[in-house]
Design a protein that fits this description.
TIM Barrel; 8-stranded parallel sheet; 10 helices; 10 strands
Length: 336
Amino acid sequence: MTILENQDIENWISKEAPEQVLEPDLAIIDPHHHLWDLRQNNSMGFRQEVYLCEEISRDIKESGHNIVQTVFAQCGAFYRADGPDEMRCIGETEFVNGVAAMSRSGLYGPTRLCTGIFSTADLRLGDKAEGVLEAHLQASSNFRGIRSAFPADLNDTFQTGFSLLEKYSLSYDNWSPDFTRLPRLADLANQNEGITVIVNHLGGKIDPDANEEEISAWRSAIDAVAACSNTVMKLGGAQMRVGEWEPPYHMHQTESPWDSDALLKALLPRYQYAFEKFGPDRCMFESNFPVDKDCVSYRTLWNLFKKMADRLGLSDSEKQSVFSGTAAKAYRLEAP
């Protein structure tokens, strides 16, 4: 049964002509999706207000793609309403650990949801952040890392907190729509070579109508962070709005969803550039659902990625890397 607050986006998605599923047996780890209930506070304006175990399981099942595992991405879901401020984020890991248990029962299908979890921690606390990381690890054996912003000056207190990630074998995800921060992220990665630094969503806002000056600046930023051997790129998130800006394929901008061929034509150059700079062993396709659901269905999105892989001429082993292997390595998951 469709939840009332999700009705608009579900109605829009239903207007697409369902595509034939490409390579339905290809094993995929979706390394970036969210779960939430925004009915009490949807300050970000996402159209899919409720996205929990049942909703993502339905999207996966109806897509026809072979999603074997997923990784939950930090989004501020179900923080504790009490306790010290720095510890309230533990509620997110506790919540997602419950979803992982629900999925593991098999009642929602064969996909194992949230075998990896990354939440957040305020690393500006320095060594005091250790208690937060330990609490996440106690909350779930699937906890794999955090996502947070970083200070422009990379000060010593933050660096002390950041170094704790290596102590606990945790990864660091980061995203901002401002790709000009990537050289500073590269500095952080270079100063902490034992920590896997994961760049989200092609590094920043992706405007298919950007001018050559903006594209050139983005390429330079990608070059800087790709030069670090311990960085990994998530190929995705280009199918999303950013703040008030909406791409031409957003549900508010087009009567019905674009098909994978139209999206391929609009987006391939950005994906190709990032892929060529990082290589298959440091790239992983991601859904970024339900954020990207504002613009594309789960089925069409993974068809788009498979068409990109073919257009890039990827071998079978390279496909294995970008669709599951890199994610398994980055988040310490059992590879399919």
